[in-house]
Write a structure and sequence with these properties.
alpha+beta; five-stranded mixed beta sheet; 7 helices; globular
């Protein structure tokens, strides 16, 4: 099996765990995902199978959309409700105060990656260090909050929608919001509504995949071609002879291609029949092979 399945990740399983289950269901050993979701988070998780995994590093960096909930008056070591409580505060904050504070987080902001995150430092994941009680110095990163809207409040739990750049930590955003309000805040729920061009309505659950297998339905109708997720790159069609050279790893002379190209840009390369060949990069007058697509 080669292609992309957009999975709805349920609460309580890791993104790696989702891939493990899909390997068992589909029988495909090569399986990877984009955009790790924490165990408590739910929502859109694009999963690559077979030859599609070779293109993980080339998937365009798209904005992500989340719905998050939080409560005030508490902080934890994980910045979400699953962690150990580190402080509790009296809360004298109105909905109006929250709305005013949210306005201060629009645009480009600086974030400190949480210790309980998949960021690597000197070859070690921060969450591995955190579980051993080790806290290390981290560098701030720039994130962009493109839209931040208030959804509502019920029984002291606030809900917001966030449209943000790749690499934004919603837990950190909420923790920083709590600091801004002076009473602490901790995330209680998180759902990713959009990622890598996929929406919630594009998703299928792992349980539904299992049902399909049990009933012999198969996955052909939900397995998307890898070039769909690479559609932000322009398309180049090459001749049959050029197709053979490209598949063998040989660079193509840009002067012989009937397409305009930009230096260092990536392109989806196709045979005249429409068969996807892989990704090429325009460099110094040549279309150099970045990845060859192998349908297995």
């Amino acid at each position: 099996m080669t292609g992309v399945i957009c999975v709805y990740k349920e609460k309580g399983i890791t993104s790696f765990g989702v891939c493990s289950r899909i390997r068992a269901i589909t029988g495909e050993k090569k399986c990877g995902h984009t955009g790790t979701l924490d165990p408590m988070a739910t929502g859109v998780l694009p999963v690559m199978l077979g030859g599609a995994t070779k293109f993980l590093d080339f998937f365009p960096e798209t904005d992500k959309e989340y719905r998050a909930s939080f409560v005030l008056g508490i902080t934890t070591d994980t910045l979400d409700i699953t962690g150990n409580v580190t402080a509790e505060y009296d809360v004298d904050v109105s909905v109006s105060d929250v709305l005013t504070a949210l306005d201060r987080f629009h645009g480009k902001i600086k974030q400190l990656p949480p210790m309980y995150s998949a960021v690597s430092l000197n070859g070690q994941r921060l969450y591995d260090l955190a579980r051993r009680g080790i806290e290390v110095v981290r560098s701030e990163r720039t994130a962009e909050i493109k839209n931040l809207s208030f959804v509502g409040e019920k029984n002291g739990e606030f809900t917001i929608d966030v449209l943000c750049s790749k690499g934004t930590y919603i837990r950190t955003l909420i923790d920083d919001l709590g600091r801004d309000l002076g009473c602490g805040a901790v995330m209680t729920a998180l759902e990713r509504k959009a990622a890598s061009g996929f929406l919630l309505e594009d998703c299928i659950s792992v349980d539904e995949l299992q049902r399909r297998k049990n009933e012999g339905i198969g996955f052909a109708d939900i397995l998307l071609p890898v070039d769909k997720i690479l559609s932000e790159y322009d398309k180049i069609t090459v001749s049959p002879a050029q197709s053979v050279r490209f598949k063998n790893g040989g660079a193509l002379d840009l002067c012989r291609l009937k397409s305009e190209t930009a230096e260092n840009a990536l392109y989806r390369v196709y045979e005249p029949s429409g068969q996807f060949l892989g990704l090429g990069q325009a460099v110094s007058g040549e279309l150099k092979v970045k990845r060859v697509f192998i349908d297995k």
